[in-house]
Amino acid sequence: MMNVLGIETSCDETSVAVINNGKLSSNIIASQDFHKDFGGVVPELSSRAHLQLIVPLLKQAIAEAELNLKDIDVISATAGPGLIGALLVGLTFAKGLSLSIGKPFIPVNHIEGHIYSGFLMDDKPEFPYLCLVVSGGHTLLLYVESDVKFYKLGTTIDDAAGEAFDKVSKMIGLGYPGGPLIQKNAEIGDENKIDFPIAKLKTDYDFSFSGVKTSVLRYIEKTYNNQPVPKEDLQDIAASFQKSVIGALVKNVEKALQNYKVKSISVVGGVAANKYLGEKLKTISKKYNKKLIIPGIQFCGDNAAMIAYRGSKLYEQGLRYELTYNAFPRFHSEFIATEMNI
Ligand code: KG4
Ligand code: ZN
Known about the structure:
By secondary structure, the protein is of the alpha/beta class.
């Protein structure tokens, strides 16, 4: 019986989870909803909220797993990338806990955590597989060969997919968080109403979302002359924008399916919660006869279960870390599984 604790505080979700031999025992997530009043995450307020929440959430996660603190065998926490102040709350807390109960501390890369969220489902990805990582800060298409070999096929050359949803949502007056609001409005809109073209890149699997964001801006400037977008037009803009961004993601996944032999496809990160993306991927996974794994909604956004899962893998691989290990705000290549070429 191996109980691995996971702690996630990289952005605006405070989360603590326990997994036992790869199976989820608890996964408590507290979303800091108050950021919506500011139109985006306020780093200082996020750190303070993590500080207030971390101890009660730990107690809740341990209680829900029907354990005591002494039953925890490994303590893992997100070390980066993310907001530095926010990361330091969870990471420092994890180190203190490790010192006090005398159990190993494992720092986890947040993106690796997302990649592993597919393994929290009953139906798991099978190696080798294609993994589309789409979050607020990252857009990556990976060929995942094994637990220690990930290869980057493509990434964004400008905005991340989730970032594009958030920025466009703000631009058209829907607010924050952009992804779910755009999706909701798009459901009743006409996706063919407006053409928001996606930039064509010379590289095979890269993405660019800054152009589509600008074309939405030009469209609303031209059509509404700097006045607010009328409510009745929001749905069509949301649907047309969503079609364009999701179309670009799915197109590259399909291209990769034609060129790489894989068994499964997995989509992870906050944008993996997008139903339209899910439907499009379902269609191509059927066409190419591949297993598709989309994590449940509680594992798409930021959560500690995925951190605990990845932490347990690193521990099983025999990796051990000093308590001097530091938080890192940006993507950190050395930290990713050894052979990832990012
Ligand atoms: O992974 P995540 O929770 O945090 C980061 O690590 O970035 O991803 C958050 C991102 C936000 O940009 C949010 O707008 C987007 O995921 N998102 C969505 C949906 N739900 C969340 N984007 C599109 N459709 C959704 N349903
Ligand atoms: Zn994330």
